[in-house]
Specification:
The chain is of the alpha/beta class. The protein has helices at residues 24-37, 43-48, 70-81, 92-97, 102-112, 135-149, 154-167, 181-189, 210-228, 244-253, 286-293, 296-304, and strands at residues 2-8, 39-40, 59-66, 87-90, 117-119, 129-131, 193-196, 234-236, 257-259, 266-267, 279-280. Strands 1, 2, 3, 4, 7, 10 and 11 form a seven-stranded mixed beta sheet that branches. It has a two-stranded antiparallel ribbon with strand order 5-6. Helix 1 packs parallel to helix 3 (70-81), helix 5 runs antiparallel to helix 6 and helix 9 (210-228) runs parallel beside helix 10.
Length: 305
Amino acid sequence: MQINIFLFHRINPLRDPLWDPIDPGQFEQQIKFIQKNYSIVQLESYLDQAKKVKSKKPLASIVFDDGYKDFMDHALPVLQRYRIPSSMYVVTNCADQMDLIWTYQLDFLFQNTKRRRIQIDSEERGCQKITWTTDEEKMIFAKALKPRLKKIKNTERENICDQIFKQLNDIEIPKNLYMDWDELREISREGVTIGSHTSSHAMLGNIDSEELIFSELKESADKIHQELGYFPKTISYPIGSYSPKVKKIAEQVGYKYGLAVNQEKFKSKKHDLFEIPRMELYNENILKTYLRTTNIWKTVSAMRS
C-alpha cells in the first residue's frame, strides 16, 4: 500500500519572515489541486483498512500539526467546502496552558524584541555572546539559530532557549494561539481526527532519557483520552525527530502509527508504521506545490546541493 500524506501547519493571512503561514487563498488553491489529482482519504481510517481502499487515482491524506487556532478560521471552512477529511495532531500542554511552542516563541521574540545583545552560557558553537546592530543582523542570526538547535541534545536546547527567553523579556508573549479542548471537541465533531504531537513539542529523537520520552508520549495520549474520550492512534513526532528507541516506546505506550517528515510518499514495503513519511507544503504557488507533491522538487534540490 502507498499514500501521499500532505502536512500543513498554520493557515493565516499574516506574513512571518521566519516561519511563513500559508495564505488562506493559497491553501484553497492547494486543496483544489490535491483534490483534482488524488483521491483524498482520512489517514487513520486508511491505515486501519488499507487493503479495502480502491481508487483509480493515487491516494492522499491531509494532516496538520500543532493545533493552532487559525485552523478553525481559515483551514476548516475550506476543508468543509470541498468535503475533505483531515487529521490534527496537537501539543497537549498548549491546549491546556496556551504556552507557545518553543520554535514559535523564538521566532516571535526575535522579530519583536528591541534588545541588541544576548549572552548564553553554553558550549554550543555560535551560541555564547551575540550582538547585533541592525534588525537585519538580528534576523540573520534568528534564521540560523533554529536549525542549529534542532541538531543538539534536548537538554542543551532547553538550556539555551530558557536563557534567551529570560533575556528577551521586553516582549509580552501572546496567548490563545492554540485551540483549547472545547475547540478541539468542536472540530472533532466536525470530523477532524485528533492525534498527539507530544506534551511539549519536544524533539524526541534528541532525548536520551527513556523515561522522559515515555512521559511526553503517554501524558499527551492520556490527556487526549481524558478530554475527547478516545486514545489517539497516532503520534506525530515534533519536527520529524524520532529514533528506533522513540518508535519502540511509542508502540509500548499504545500508539498504532508514528508520523515523520521525510518529504516522500509512504510505501508499506519501504516504511514501517512508526516512521510514516509526510510531505510538508508551504506558502508557495501551484507550480512549486506540484513539484513538491510529485517529489520532483526534492530531486532538483538534491542536484543543486
